[in-house]
Design goal:
375 residues; alpha/beta; Rossmann fold; seven-stranded parallel sheet; six-stranded parallel sheet; 13 helices; 39% helix; globular; binds ligand GMT
Length: 375
């Protein structure tokens, strides 16, 4: 099939899922056309069957806000015609599905261009519920030829908040278990912790919803009894405050702020524990990537996280903001080798049995076939 994919190309779960999906589809023989304002992260140009079409947004003194949504719609229509696209798959409802709808209307009746919108989380739980975006988000869901959500939680939330009647298929996040795999030696860990302390890892876009500051608090608490070093990977609004807090709690020597990382599959396996203290996660992709790498997640019991992590079996789920409980779980994992071994094996098994790319990608392929047939 010829598939067009649009996503936010920056750091964030929706862009990562879209990019990894495109790469998997190309490996399976599909022609994949990314349409976005810059090359998505994790997308290595030059791969067979992967194409990238940049959306240029011209500015004009009259435009205080350049109309990206319109430039994107024009580019989508152009690419669909030139490359004979069968389907458009947009990730994150706002504004991508509105652009897709416009592109569809521009091409009709000469060409049929069905589109699927994948809901990832904040497009519904934060942006979509904002009064200025609510009506357009609802409209875009109703007008999509197919809608998917990354967890049962997100599907239920979407129905509850927007009262939409269309089918929403749940297609959960996936991981490539050949690239994301354990590193038993963890030899690279010594560059961060030369004294041999075990590594805790937090990886996010440092938006307030991720509660990155809790990670610093957890590290400070853990270090009262157990040596540990914290890696903070990624960047965003809460990075500065987290650095400040590390100095305030006098643990700055034990925290490394790494900034944005392009090859997280090399970084994640170095850690023992992943910290995901989020306020909300519709799924929690980073926890899945960690589990595939044999890294045990200590996370919060929010949104769709329990659809991935089984508390006390392959990770721990605690209440949002309960730094004491999360710290105690980390100490348990760092000091009880048998427990850590059992949980990391269970996590890897869960990732590869339920969420590996080979199991999930066919669900997207089937959805493409269904919307192309008009089912
Ligand atoms: O939270 C992020 O990293 C960004 C956000 C997005 O939409 O770009 O991620 C969401 O999508 C991920 C991939 O489907 C999910 O695994 C995350 O749980 C979800 N984030 C939230 O719901 C806060």
């Amino acid at each position: 099939m010829n598939v067009g994919i649009t996503c936010y190309p920056t750091y964030g779960g929706s862009g990562i899922v879209a990019t990894e999906l495109g790469l998997e589809l190309a490996t399976r023989g599909h022609e994949v056309h990314f349409i976005s304002y810059s090359n998505p992260i994790r997308l290595d140009a030059g791969m067979p069957r992967i194409h990238y079409h940049e959306v240029e947004v011209s500015t004009y003194p009259l435009f205080q806000y350049p109309p990206y949504c319109l430039a994107l719609a024009s580019r989508m229509a152009e690419v669909a015609e030139s490359y004979d696209l069968d389907v458009l798959h947009v990730h994150y409802a706002v504004p991508h599905s509105i652009s897709a709808m416009l592109a569809q209307q521009m091409l009709a009746p000469k060409r049929r261009l069905p589109f699927i919108t994948t809901l990832h989380g904040t497009d519904i739980t934060l942006v979509g519920v904002d009064p200025s975006y609510f009506p357009i988000t609802k409209f875009s869901i109703e007008r999509s030829n197919g809608i998917s959500a990354v967890s049962d939680y997100l599907r239920e939330r979407t129905v509850e908040v927007f009262g939409v009647a269309n089918e929403i298929r749940v297609i959960k996040n996936f991981v490539n278990c050949d690239r994301y795999k354990p590193d038993e030696e963890k030899a690279g860990a010594s560059q961060y912790a030369p004294a041999g302390e075990k590594l805790l890892l937090h990886l996010s876009n440092f938006r307030p919803v991720k509660r990155a500051l809790d990670c610093v608090r957890i590290l400070a608490e853990v270090r009262k009894s157990t040596p540990a070093h914290l890696l903070m990977a990624g960047d965003g609004p809460d990075r500065g405050p987290a650095e400040h807090l590390a100095r305030e709690l006098k643990v700055e020597k034990h925290v490394s702020f790494l900034g944005k990382q392009n090859h997280v599959e090399r970084l994640i396996p170095l850690a023992h524990v992943l910290l995901m203290p989020s306020e909300l996660e519709s799924f929690g992709l980073v926890a899945l990537e960690a589990m595939a790498c044999g890294v045990v997640p200590v996370a919060t019991n929010v949104g769709g996280v329990a659809e991935l992590i089984t508390d006390r079996e392959d990770g721990f789920l605690e209440a949002v903001g309960d730094v004491a409980a999360q710290s105690a779980r980390v100490v348990q994992l760092l000091t009880d080798g048998d427990l850590h071994y059992r949980m990391r094996k269970a996590g890897r098994w869960n990732a590869s049995e339920r969420f590996c790319a080979e199991k999930i990608i066919p669900m997207y392929e089937k959805y493409y076939e269904d919307v192309v047939k008009g089912a």
